[in-house]
Amino acid sequence: MYLILLVILIAVIIFYQIRRRKRHDEFWKYVMAIPGPKGYPLLGTNNVLHTPESLFERDRKRGREYFPIYKMWSLDFASVGLMIPEDIELVLNNSKHINKSIIYDFLHSWLGSGLLTSGGTKWHKRRKILTPAFHFNILQEFIEILNRETQILVDNLSKICDQPYVNVVKPITEYTLFSIGETSLGVQLREYSNCFQYKQSVYDFGESFTYRAVRPWLWISFIYKLSNSYQKDKKTVKTLHDFSMSVIKERQKSFAQDKSNGSYSERKRLALLDLMLQAYENGADIDIEGIREEVDTFVFEGHDTTSLSLCYTLMVLANEQKIQEEIYEEIISVVGDSSIPTYNELGELKFMERCIKESLRLYPSVPLIGRIAGEEINTKSGYTIPKGCNITILFYDLHRLPEIWENPEKFDPDRFLPDNVAKRHPFAYLPFSAGSRNCIGQRFALLELKAALFGILRNFKLVPVDKPEDMKYKTDLVLRPAGEIRVKFVPRLINI
């Protein structure tokens, strides 16, 4: 068996060496001119088997050492990391660079070619179908659900607030998962027995994704399929798909019942899943498998990213007592003695919104994205990215550049006062990406964050346990903490 694998590996090495030599000389000439770490034959710059934690630190170190641009390569694949807004704008503001990079291929077994991973005509068609689900009028109707889920969250925190601290990841993840279930899918995910198994499978897939990313030989499909990692991923993906298909089948039944009894036509709001089912029945270019792709995409992106953002916000506000109290005072001044805010009242919480934006600067839920250069790019930093090259846009590093953000590690919501925002490059702050492929659900995410913060800060005072400077992270699909995110919750003595 080992002899067969050795022969295969030698054949692969020869194949990729020949393939690389045949590739256009200009491509590698431009790539190799870009600064970057020392490369080794075949493995290139991926010559160390990093842990998820050390991989995150490696990328931060490379960003500092080779700022503002650096190259990475393995086999015949090359990628260029970008950190300054002038270079990032060249990519995100040009529709020729709309296709995602090779790293997104690793997501296809789970997310297929949905909105996150697809490109070209398919992406445009899907975006057109899904955009109405996040219309302003629909978001207004979501507030009732978000307030109800927030109250459940507050009740759950009340039961455990006598503990020395709470690892907020679990309760907050449940809040965002159940919120996305009822708002976007129109179902109560609490009723699904495999819901919590789904949550664990999301974590498992993220770990497997990182494992594969640092092993270039596993980028090659047929070698990957011979690995134990592939067999493990198949089981994980089956769990993920079983969950999403059970949601779709259940919603199909109730959707058909609504239509038959006439209540469908009376409803003002169509959940995202309903919109897709309606498009499917009307003959649009989407089938049940396509609906499954989008359900997987939105359940993952709609709960995991927002969950972590809220967790980091609670942690940082616990360490910023003065700012925390300013938010509380704003809540009381806007809403008074009401415990249930309206959509418009949440919109009036301007200081809270600035705090959320500053938290997203320091802790962008998605720390990087990847694209493919659709044409040659002459960067503002003085280098040429050849057509076909992978591009990694490093939001985490962009958001902490001292050249843009004075004292970048400091939590300062005044950075988002209108006058200060106007002074910055429009591509200096990108928690939801930018351009035509920006996050379709960003307004929903902000509304969800505000609703949760309203309920939590109105009922509890946050006391620090973990400090921002002590936080460690690991490379994952999202900005995942290496450990817990711990906060102490103290019930407010006087609820106005």
Characterization of the model:
With 496 residues, the protein is an alpha+beta fold. The protein is 55% helix and 9% strand. It has 20 helices and eleven strands. The strands form four sheets. The protein has a four-stranded mixed β-sheet. The termini are far apart. The model has no long low-confidence stretch (mean pLDDT 90).
Which features would summarize this protein structure in a list?
three-stranded antiparallel sheet; 496 residues; four-stranded mixed sheet; alpha+beta; 20 helices; 11 strands
Please give a quick description of this structure.
This protein has 496 residues and is an alpha+beta fold.
Percent helix range: 55-70%
Report the sheet-strand fraction: 5-15%
Please identify the structural class as seen in this structure: alpha+beta
What's the rounded overall pLDDT mean?
Answer: 90
Function: May be involved in the metabolism of insect hormones and in the breakdown of synthetic insecticides.
Pfam family, one: p450
Binding site for heme: 439
Keywords: Endoplasmic reticulum, Heme, Iron, Membrane, Metal-binding, Microsome, Monooxygenase, Oxidoreductase
